[in-house]
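In this supplementary section we document a worked example of the pipeline. Step one takes a protein sequence of length 98 as its only input; no multiple sequence alignment statistics are reported here. Step two produces a three-dimensional model, which step three serialises into structure tokens for compact storage. The input and output of this example are shown verbatim.
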Amino acid sequence: MRETKKKLRDLTLELMRSKCIDTSKNISENMDRSVSALKWLKVGFHLALCEHCREYKIQLKTLRYLTQILEKDAPSMETQGCMKTDFKERMKRFFKEK
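The serialised model returned by step three reads:
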């Protein structure tokens, strides 16, 4: 019985382990569309153990947020050839808060 539990535990841990490269792809994919429950669990388990991937996720969210802001200001930036002052101020506030 103990050996069966050990095998089951080892199998579960092996299933849950993933490399940083796989995790980063899954983090990115999860931001664009839903992922399977297994991928979601693997990412969550990996993030609990890996501070580098947690930092990557934060950076990716930040880039996504800034890109969304930039998309709103893009037409005005094209005609003026530079960033609006309002946009610069929003970026400064965002980075001060983080």
